[in-house]
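Bumping with the actual sequence this time:
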Amino acid sequence: MLAAIRNAIEANRIDLHLQPIVTLPQRKVRYYEAMSRLRTQGGDVVLAAEFISQAEAGGLMPKIDNLVVFRCVQVLRRLLLKNREVGVFCNLSVATLTDAVVFPQLLEFLDANRAIAPSLVLEFTQSGLRGAGPIETESLAALRECGFRFLHGQCDRPAPGAARARKPRFSASSSCGRASSSTAAASPPISTRATSRICSRASVSTSSPRRSKARARWSICSISM
């Protein structure tokens, strides 16, 4: 599998898929979650869950992240031409923050595109940031200086003090049950007061077959811009 991942990176076969995130109850698309997909030489699509762990073990995530960020910026520029209020969440590996080759290139690219910083949110897993050291912290600070905000993904419990110090703009939990505009208010705080809580796989109660399609979408429980 590792050889297939390397081949896909070299052949530029890391694709970007967008998962819409909607506000409730309006069901208006507010953000997109950028999700990477790997295309094999035979044309098969491999989901991130099936190759990310091996890519991490093989030290290939910084290169994948570099491709994903480049595509996110391209896609976001096109989206903003139609809707200035839309944004994209881009998943990144904490390993990218310490890569001596990839991170400087990534930082230079994002700095050159800081005009879209308000619309591009960089997502890191809480577990990854929990063990962050001085290099990771310095890299995050450099990204923040360019105007980019962060999301702590997979936050099923309050973030530790070290993570809170990095001032995430959003926190994501795995499930919120029945989604409503009051869900976040009933939930314990994830991080700082300025942090918006996002839930995934929200169940939407509706009798309309047409609206039942919203079940497959992620939802923002609350957002303070």
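The tokens above came from a reply further down the thread. The helical segments are 2-10, 48-57, 61-82, 102-112, 126-130, 134-145, 161-164, 183-186.
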